Amino acid sequence: MLCFSDEELRDLLHQDVPYLDNTSFGLNISGDARLEFFPKNEEIILCGIDECKRLAQLENLQYITHATNGDCIAPKEVFLTLWGNAQRLLSVQKTLQNILEHASSVATYTHKMLSLARGKNPHIA
Q: Which residues pair with 62 in a beta bridge?
């Protein structure tokens, strides 16, 4: 299992938003907001949710997880809800999306390959 340190998570965020979030700055967005994460069109095997929770904590955002790593998530099924300062939410959103998309893609395709292999050999590791 691959784990990120808090410093590595901050570095990922800094790569996406090195100075400020142009959207919230340019549109003068303020106040509180809420953000939900869910797969659009396909079922996924969720992975990366723990890193997202930690990054939310580092950015002083509130969150509720509706699933855990390894869960099968249906299209449009919300698995993570964040809320708090709108500017912080917009700043962290793309980093969280990248973590979830990459990790869940690997988990989903690994699950599919293992299912196919087990169709031929139920005892395969």
A: 83
Spatial strand order in the sheet of 80-85: 32-37, 80-85, 62-65
Query: 64-97 pLDDT, tens per residue?
Result: 999 999 999 999 999 999 999 998 898 899 999 9
What DSSP string describes 60-75?
A: T-EEEESS-TT-EE-T
How does pLDDT run across 25-70, given as a tens digit for each residue?
A: 677 778 999 999 999 999 999 999 999 999 999 999 999 999 999 9
**Which tokens sit at 84?**
């708090």
| Longest alpha-carbon distance in the chain | 58
Residue 52 structure tokens: 């997202």
What pairs with residue 45 in β-bridges?
72
Neighbour-count burial for 61-95, b at 16+ CB within 10 Å, e otherwise: bebebbbebebebeeeeebbebbbbbbbbbbbbbb
Q: What is the DSSP string of 77-99?
A: ---EEEEEEHHHHHHHHHHHHHH
